[in-house]
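Reader question, answered in our methods column.
A reader sent in the components of a multi-part assembly and asked whether the whole thing could be modeled at once rather than chain by chain. We filled in our standard form and ran it. Here is what they sent:
COMPLEX SIZE: two components
ENTRIES:
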Amino acid sequence: MTETTMSSAKPSILRGFDLKTAGPAIALLILCVIGFLLNPAFLSEGNITNLLTRSAFIGIIAVGATFVITAGGIDLSVGSMAAVIAGVMIIVMNSAVDTFGTGVTTVLIGCGCSIILGLGAGLVNGLLTTKGKIEAFIVTLGTMGIYRSLVTYFADGGTLSLNYDIRGVYRPVYYDSFFGLPIPVWVFIIVSIAGWFLMNRTAFGRYCTAIGSNESVAKYSAIKVDRVKTLTYVIQGVCVSLATIIYVPRLGSASSTTGVLWELEAIAAVIIGGTVLKGGYGRIGGTILGALILTTIGNILNFTDMISNYLNGTMQGLIIIVAVWLQRGDWGRSKSAD
Amino acid sequence: MKTFTKIGALATVATIALTGWASAETIKIGVSYPTPTHAWAAGMNWHAEKAEERLEALYPDVDLILVNSPDPSAQASALEDLVSVHGIDALVVLPFESEPLTDPVLNVKKSGALITVVDRGLSQPGIEDIYVAGNNPELGRVSAEYMKTRLKDGDNIVVLRGIPTLIDNERFDAFMAEIEGSGINVLDHKHANWNRDDGFEVMQDFLSRFPDIDAVWAQDDDIAIGVVAALKQAGRDGNGMFVVGGAGMKETIKGIMDGNELVPVDVLYPPAMIATAMDVTVSAFKSNGPVAGRYILGATLITPENAASFYFPDSPF
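And here is the structure of the entire assembly that came back:
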């Protein structure tokens, strides 16, 4: 991860080791050491597996968010989108039982429906931003409210629950392992590799960066700005639908409290990872570390009773700020300035 | 927006004036509560509608007007409308928040209406004629009492709490007070925000952290669902392990009826309390007995024996 990003950084005096890009990795390492010191069970196989699986939701969504943010946009609707997709998936699968039974077909119909909804929701966000010429912040603030109230409406204010028999068929998607790693972690890995390739090895990735740095210049350079920007929201939508596909089998339910604040966690993961919030520079590898850092914080707080429960938010806030400061602050610059 | 509301209000006034003409003797009772955004509140909404149907069929001269509001200020306006537009004789109110709704309810009282407050008290005493509420400390105490019947000296439990609020503190403090001196160790307590996902994650971490847990107090049925999933994932749902939730979710009660060993009991904090409040309020006009006073509902321990009377399969909760 570090080798690839180093090439773009100016030659560092610190023996070719760029502290700034390594910031998120160092922060994660420090967190793990703290976790281990608090309780050696932190590094137990079970806990590491839990941590990775939990990171998968935010991580997959954050990979999509990296594209949106790199191209100068923002998507606040992802948490609500996940909730409404989960809700509709459950409704569709429950009603498909009558015709298709409680087998794999029904689950596949649910997953297909999730992908279509994710594509569609992303496309709506993208088109309203580019063709509608409304600021992304406003568009996605609007769709965030719409999706959130839709899931409340579908659930009649309560909770939507998946048919018990389908749950049995679908359950392994969250709980089973493949070569020692839970399936959600595999999905996370595949999405990460695909995202990294798209960002760093294709024209599309370079277009995102160019648009985020300077949209006008990108336009004059014959980049189809609107199309690329819309596509970033579509990628985001697909990432949300993938995250939802692995989320639903966990508890088999969706309610108005599903995915609350996921958007902010995803954005935080992206920024902790070194992507610039105003666009123009994106790092998929960093985003993945960012998602792991966020989950690890919550995990560690559950592993100790030294800190009052009421101060959990304070600890999370502090660690996020420190993690970003590690790579933004002036502290390493005096040495490498030239 | 504003004109729209005004037109709406005018139209309502016109309709009310017309219907009012027809039956001048109608007893009008306004019922105001927050818009349901979570399962418990959705259950309350369902029970309020059921009670409305039942009471209006029983007493043709009683008119119950159900209004739900998305936030405290909307609820304050709704209360004003109930007085000015409907001219209610009594108000049943579950306040969104105590502080901002005390004055609006006081104004309704000044209009001469009978006041019934449900679940959340007002910040000034003496306004309500009737008070109907669940019992939060009792919920904690009853849960602890059950734990003591199942566990022995030296056994370990973990506690998952709700959203950090007064309600959560009341339940938790009463639970801890009852557990004290029993020799049962409370290993740790964390907030799971009355939420399934948080219940799952907090429980996963408890399971990694503590190799020996004998029982879980989840305080709430939603948290309990997450806890059960985490226990099953870790394969630690056997060996007499059990989880105690609270509230009275229909799925949980169904499980108790079917003899689920992992969640063998539940402690009631019923969304149907709104129906109790409506019944008592109507009695104020219909009964020959006095009804004013405070009604604190029991936090009943739901067991396979009595579960059927708390099971409402059609309710969303």
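What stands out: Chain B has ten helices and twelve strands. The interface with chain A takes residues 35-39, 41-43, 45, 161, 164, 188-191, 195-197, 200-202, 204-209, 222, 225-226, 229, 233-234, 251, 316-317 of chain B (CB under 8 Å).
Send us your own complexes using the same form.
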